[in-house]
Amino acid sequence: MLTSDFDYHLPPELIASEPLPDRAASRMLVVNREMGTLEHRQFADLPTYVRAGDLFVMNNTRVVPARYFSNDGSREVLRLEPLTATRWRCMVKPGKRFRLGNTVQIGEATGTVEGILENGERIIQWDQEVDEAAHGHLALPHYMGRDDQPADRERYQTVFAQSAGAIAAPTAGLHFTQEILEKLPHAFVTLHVGVGTFQPVKVEKLEEHVMHRERYEVTAETASAIQEARRVVAVGTTAMRTLESVALEHGGQVVAQSGSTDIFIYPGYQFQAVGAMLTNFHLPKSTLIMLVSAFAGKDLIMQAYEEAIRERYRFFSYGDCMLIL
Predict the structure, then answer these.
(1) Which end of the chain is less crowded, N or C, counting CB atoms within 10 A of the terminal residue's CB?
(2) CATH number of the domain encompassing residue 123
């Protein structure tokens, strides 16, 4: 398949750059794979779709402020992974200001570029810990067209966020309130969403695309709940990728384990663990729209996206959602 097969035109005004005041006020397009039907509902209706034996599996990663600016404002550092408290793997810009041995100052901390990786990422060693509370910013997706605001610290975070480490939010989880969560049988996995979730597919043939790697954990408690469930409902593509990664390794069984995954799910993939999913609307030609196309069929997903655009749904991270049954 070709990357261009997953393109569509989105009117810019449908991109949700700000969240709704009420998390649960989102619209929900219900896609029935067996019937090939589309139904317009509200996210608050989600509990009415629960069947006996269902288990909703959610990603409880917590978004950390990973974006930093130098004291003079001329340079930017995006922390991809803290190798230690004072040694980071980063993306930087402009790259010419981060040559080997160059220094950058953020607050009281001075960082030195100790390594340049093949992909352009830097290893920066700090002389002391950088003050995250004072200088860290959320790395909001570029399509929002704005910098983070204080309100995003709470709103660009799920109500069940627990394990710190994500650069981006698992956005299907942003719709949940504590009240709705309590109405659903649920369990948690952790996958720390990386910056690669926003990176475009740059090759035309899908099989040539190399996915970014992300760290995950499935606890024994969650694995046990999944094994007892009749149907697993993945909340978001990150929960889906975690469950399918583990199931692929263990003959369709989800077991307790931690590690990292670079699984790339696109049409033709045979799902092992998940029977339904909740997801947001994704960028054209992204690995995420490829994943949902694998789950529901490309033609049905493209039909659903056309319908969502026609009905003026809100798209992307702070946008509306889709329940695929």
Answers:
(1) N
(2) 2.40.10.240
